[in-house]
Amino acid sequence: MKVLAGDIGGTNSRLALVAVDASGACALSALRSFRNADFPSFEAVLDAYGGAHLAGLPVALAVAGPVGDGRVQLTNRGWDICAATLQARYRCSALRLFNDFEAAVYGVDTLCDDGVRVLQRGAANAAGLRLLVGAGTGFGVAFGAVHDDGTVQACSTEGGHIAFAPRNAVQDELLAFMRARHGRVSVERLLSGAGIEALHAFCRERHDQRPGPAPDAAGVVAAARAGDSAAAAAVALFVELLGQVTGDLALATGARGGVHVAGGIAPQLGELLDAATFCTAFADKGRFAAWMAALPVSLVKDPWLGLKGAALALRREMQACERGEGGG
Fold it and tell me: Which UniProt keywords apply (predicted)?
């Protein structure tokens, strides 16, 4: 089965042809990545990729936002994407939209050893719930429930918009700092590109640094690598918060099937993502600390996870239709 698959985030759109074999293995070709800021609409991205050649192909798109009735408005990009409109315009044989983290859950089984970095070793329960989180333009959360036959049912959430809960005095200060800016403070306000910028502003204030030009998230990470104290503190705090919130979500869902951390930011941190900092915050759950420390946690390094997951989600849906079970 060959699918045109896309992973459409707030910042970038990735597209490729994906050949899925009977075992679920994915072979990618014609891979391209686009900066969304360079395009007025998603249709313009598809045209740049070669929309005229999509006729007759099934298309699966993983999109950064809640999908309903075959359409989505991207949470962090003002694009309204409608499956029916795109299918009619490009004459695709089928076109389906999936939440990006829902799709990524299906992609987890395609990961090989060099596609992950182990943050915490543990024994996964094959029948247990799987958790996937990731920070990028926003903060995504999804989980996968395993059926008796071993197949996975992915469920998307808007867990990135839960409230931030401080766990120490520094984080109490951070909450007050962020509340002055936003009122209610969600975890996405901190665990995102904009979140790294906000953490840097907070750390500059705490380090009594003079106000100056505010770097973007990539600039903060570069400054941290160059030894800037406020930038290094901001990245360390981001890693701590990422571990803390991921742990909260793993505890809330009972993620015995394992935890995967994806998204556009964490894999780019490299050596700045200190596993000990992450795992200490992840497991700091009082009476459940030992239980948390036994969960396997991995960092996803494969940038094509969501794209492959979208292709597999469409294949799963089409197979269900062939069996007369309906989609989803």
Answer: Kinase, Transferase
